[in-house]
Specification:
By secondary structure, the protein is mainly α. 72% of the residues lie in helices and 3% in strands. The chain contains 26 helices and two strands. The longest helix is centred in the first third of the chain and has 48 residues, at 7-54. It is globular.
Length: 637
């Protein structure tokens, strides 16, 4: 199966081409089923590659397949090559596995949309780009996929572009990600300058052997981290992700759970030897940004009323946990949480889409309530996702989040405390969402006049194509933690699998207080999660305590609006000043030189009369002048 590695990205690409050429002919639902089949086919091939690698000894779980020489330019030789190793195949498995479930869900969700086939064309192209990103053998192939998912996110977020808010959100995502892309390019240039290659193997080997200095490694790590902040929505570049909710819900699930937002964490893990040899403050900075983002987004999620906005800020927060893990040297924990997060966040987003579908496109949770009675499958699966993200054992999110907090405590108790406060808030706001949507009083009766006269409005369960993926994801959210349980080294399946990739950078916390008392920390995590749930039940369920939801939190601490005001005010004036300088000063200098040369040339051209006697006179005068100069020079000397 390793020889068929190229087939993994080729199948979604083929789906894109077929729908591009014959999408209108296929129509609904055939275009959706074709796109789903292509991504599912990639998953089957990836599973075969996984078992091939698993059967190899640990040191041989590394396979490069080069398709052709892409850029043989001097010392820069870049192949369009794919890398199959434990990290890339882990990414490919959940990208294609969850991606195929999201595709299947979308066939039901997008039913009746006039651009049905175009939607799946974009989805297949998005999955192809993500596969190029994670399978790239070198930074340039990864960057090709990196730009691809950025472009596709623009297409998908603004898919309903007739709505001004959707069109604006798409442009916002595109522009914000360009800021991060600059960091990736700078990191690539520095890496090539230091290691002479863009291959991950070459760059990481150079770091491990000390060929890359600490200064250069720090610069590379931080430049790539800027790119990761853009793609994975960390402070200060997170602002595009909440607005991305303007896209159809399957897009939200695909972008925020299994694909695009995980790219930054993947890239940081891929270059973990570079981060390891960087100055100590570099990973500490990554951890601080991660935990600050996690807490910041969690406080905002507490006061959101849009069902998808809560999950959007939750995604930003959970990604912050992953960067906390990266900065703490817990790369296995980062990937572990990435995988479990893909399970329960895809479940929650698709569950929210099922609610929106059943509520006739209503997204305000204040207009919901008691939906568990009318949407039992959606409610049950959503509750599983809630327990997983809230950190309740034995659901998947508990195990991965606890391992991150364990490493965070070993690095700094302050990081641990902030992370634990964030975990408390996570349990609180997710319980609030579940109560507002599925429990309490039914508030949707009041919408009869909006959706149908004489009380015709009634929420309904989604079709099988939508609830079947929910059931599968709910199962994964329950058992997903089994891949890395803390009770014994024999149960560290994911750690053993990823060991060849992260062995150099993974932190060793044996002998620390955190490691020796990990079961105490485990107990604290359970108490914190249950406390958050209990507090939310008292506030929103029992109504025993008044909710504290200041408008500043609902407005996201005014961070987004402050940036908008700056960009529309001083920022715009600054850009206009730069444009004026470029037009008047830079272009003026260039044009001025041109005018001087042209004027001088016109003056000199007048001497070119074509008369031989004039030229002879000029030569004579020149000879006399030279003789005079030599005479005077001799007299002076």
């Amino acid at each position: 199966m390793l020889d068929l590695l190229w087939l993994i990205p080729a199948l979604p690409l083929a789906g894109f081409v077929i729908i591009l050429l014959f999408g209108r002919l296929l129509g609904e639902p055939k275009a959706g089923y074709l796109a789903t089949a292509m991504v599912a086919g990639s998953f089957v091939v990836a599973a075969g590659v996984f078992f091939d690698l698993l059967n190899n000894p640990e040191e041989e779980r590394h396979h490069v397949q080069s398709l052709f020489s892409w850029m043989p330019v001097g010392s820069l030789k870049v192949d369009l090559a794919f890398l199959a190793d434990p990290l890339s195949i882990t990414m490919v498995l959940f990208v294609t596995g969850i991606g195929s479930l999201i595709h299947l869900y979308a066939t039901g969700y997008m039913h009746g949309d006039p651009k049905f086939s175009k939607f799946f064309l974009y989805l297949n192209l998005f999955v192809f780009s993500m596969l190029m990103l994670v399978m790239g053998e070198n930074l340039l192939v990864t960057f090709l996929g990196w730009e691809g998912v950025g472009t596709c996110s623009y297409f998908l977020i603004s898919f309903w572009h007739t709505r001004e808010s959707a069109a604006t959100a798409g442009k916002k995502a595109f522009v914000t990600n360009r800021v991060g892309d600059w960091g990736v390019m700078m990191g690539m240039f520095l890496a090539f300058g230091a290691a002479g290659t863009l291959s991950y193997e070459g760059i990481n080997h150079a770091a491990e052997e000390g060929i890359i200095s600490g200064v250069t490694a720090t610069a590379i790590a931080l430049m790539l981290f800027i790119g990761a902040c853009g793609k994975s929505a960390q402070l200060p570049l997170y602002i595009w992700l909440p607005d991305a909710m303007e896209g159809p819900t399957p897009v939200s699930a695909l972008i925020h759970a299994a694909t695009m937002v995980t790219a930054g964490v993947f890239l940081m893990t891929r270059v973990n030897p570079v981060i390891e040899v960087a100055y100590d403050w570099a990973p500490t900075l990554i951890a601080i940004v991660g935990v600050a983002t996690a807490l910041f987004a969690a406080t905002i999620a507490v006061a959101q009323n849009d069902i998808k906005k809560v999950l959007a800020y939750s995604t930003v927060s959970q990604l912050g946990f992953m960067f906390l893990a990266v900065g703490s040297g817990a790369y296995v924990a980062a990937i572990f949480h990435m995988v479990t997060h893909a399970f329960f966040k895809a479940l929650l987003f698709l569950g929210s889409g099922s609610v929106i579908h059943g509520m006739h496109h209503e997204q305000d949770m204040r207009k919901m309530g008691a939906l568990r009675l009318l949407m039992p499958i959606t409610a049950l699966t959503f509750i599983v996702g809630w327990l997983a993200i809230a950190g309740v054992p034995p659901f998947a999110g508990f195990w991965s989040k606890d391992e991150i907090l364990l490493y965070a405590f070993a690095k700094s108790p302050i990081l641990y405390v902030v992370g634990m406060i964030t975990a408390l808030l996570t349990a609180y706001y997710m319980t609030r969402q579940v109560i507002m949507v599925f429990f309490g009083e039914a508030r949707w009766h009041d919408q009869s006049d909006e959706h149908g006269a004489h009380g015709d409005f009634k929420p309904h369960e989604s079709p099988a194509t939508m609830w079947m993926p929910l059931v599968v994801l709910a199962g994964l959210s329950i058992v997903g933690g089994a891949m890395q349980l803390p009770f014994s080294k024999d149960l560290h399946f994911l750690e053993k699998w990823l060991h060849p990739v992260v062995e150099f950078g993974e932190a060793d916390i044996k002998g620390t207080w955190a490691y020796d008392n990990k079961y105490v920390l485990l107990g604290i995590a359970i108490v914190v999660a249950l406390s958050g749930i209990a507090a939310s039940v008292l506030v929103h369920g029992k109504k025993k305590v008044a909710a504290i939801e200041p408008q500043v939190l609902a407005d996201g601490w005014h961070y987004d609006s402050a940036i908008s005001r700056f960009m529309g005010g001083p920022g715009r004036k600054s850009f206009d000043a730069v444009a004026w300088t470029d037009r008047v000063v830079v272009d003026g200098a260039v044009n001025g030189v041109g005018r001087v040369v042209r004027t001088t040339g016109s003056f000199v051209r007048r001497a070119q009369t074509g008369a031989v006697r004039n030229y002879a006179a000029g030569v004579g005068l020149g000879v006399v002048a030279l003789l005079v100069w030599f005479f005077l020079r001799g007299v002076v000397l």
